[in-house]
Amino acid sequence: MNGKRNKGFTLIEVMVAVAILSVSLMALMNLQSRSILASARAQRISVATLLARQKMASVILEIEKGIPKGDFPDEKEEEGIFEEEDFQDYYWKLVIKTVELPVPEGAEGKSEIMGQVMKMLSEELSKSAREVRLIVGWKEFEEEEEGITLVTHIVNPLGV
Length: 160
Prior knowledge:
elongated, 48% helix, 3 helices, 4-stranded antiparallel sheet
């Protein structure tokens, strides 16, 4: 053997290399699975956003059609699912409530008349303004996942 070392790998060197390779592969697989989950969530949020825009537009259109007839919604809550074949695991919750406008600070201290006027104005505006809140989410692993929330305000220009 003339003092030359054997060019083959020892068993320990092979085992260390396999261990390093397996740890590296596990890290890469973990990273890949997180990437797939993030991509799926982004797709769900995109679909929920489009469905929310569609639902909010139809709710606002319905309210605006009723205003000339004297219909302006009081407080109400509704919920349902999207009936389209591809979106049955998406749900929506709609809440319409009266907007409570506070009396501006300092209005009551200026004068009694000014305070009363501001209070009356606040009450009248509250009667003709509504907050429309729409939540669109989806079911994932048999649990409801709250996706996005849209909020807008509608004012009845014709008054009460």
